[in-house]
Design brief:
This protein is an all-alpha fold and 332 residues long. Helix 4 runs antiparallel to helix 5 and helix 5 packs across helix 6. The longest helix is centred in the middle third of the chain and has 46 residues. It is 79% helix and 0% strand. The radius of gyration is 25 Å and the shape is globular. The chain folds into three domains: 101 residues, no CATH class; 98 residues; 65 residues, no CATH class.
Amino acid sequence: MDQNLLLMIIQIIIIVVLFIVIVFMLRQNISIRHERRIGRYSIEPIKSESLSVFDNLSIKYLKFIKRIRKILLKSNLIKRISRRYEKYTLFGKDTVAVDYIAHKLIIAITFVLLTVFSQVLQTRLVTLFELLFNFILGYYILDIYLIYRNKMRIKKIENEMLRAIIIMNNAFKAGKSTMQAVLIASEELPEPISDEFKKIYQDLKYGLGVDVVFERFAKRINIEEARYISSSLTILNKTGGNIVKVFDSIEKTLFDKKKLKEELRNLTVSSNLVVKVLMFVPFIFVGIIYILNPNYFDPLFASTLGYFVLFVIFVMVIVYIWFLQKIMKVKV
């Protein structure tokens, strides 16, 4: 019992430290974004050449990732796997798709080392299943974060699409070309949609057609508004017409759709609150059982069958949350 208590305390300490590190990194990232946003409106202070401990660690870690990148790029299989991560790379950043594979491997190895460390404290051998389970869990945990971040990114792009169309339409009314209109939109719009318009501008500079460029844009972000713009420009390129009238029609359609979405959101706000409460019910239920009987879940961590049951429970919770979201999702 004393060893279990000691192990639990150590695990709690490790989780708290990891949580503090993640929160610190997120706050640092937000601070850097705010600094870049207001930096152009302020007088630059005297630059200091000294770097903080966090900056030094970040630089060393990125150098280590670049070394791993060179090794991973030698494998054709890794190159093929990394292509699915190209949509997560940001414009103008040094990160490439294969770097995400390197991050995933480092996280997976870290999970395995933590498992070995915790089992050594319990003076018991680590089973092959436990190592494999924690390696897979660590390997795919970054995918969950990337999917969530990409979902939030696409949501922000979707909210700014109407503004982008208005800016481009005003540019066309002022006699600007398509390339000039895209450049103005990339400079006036906030991130992340400005990054997408920078990619569009780069594709146009390389000589690709307008319909091809916007079709690639629609495939990258995969939202209905982008597909509508792409199909409209494709038809315009093939049949001819007045681009100002086309964008006037697109602007009116997107405005009506956004207005309808706001009305639906106001009508379903109470139902969405009920769904969010239902999402947390299983976790609240588990927390209550643990408070009443802390040893109730010990068999799940004492055998291979227990770890399998935990995996099944995790999958069931994911399906449960997905099913609740599908029930409340209303397509416009």
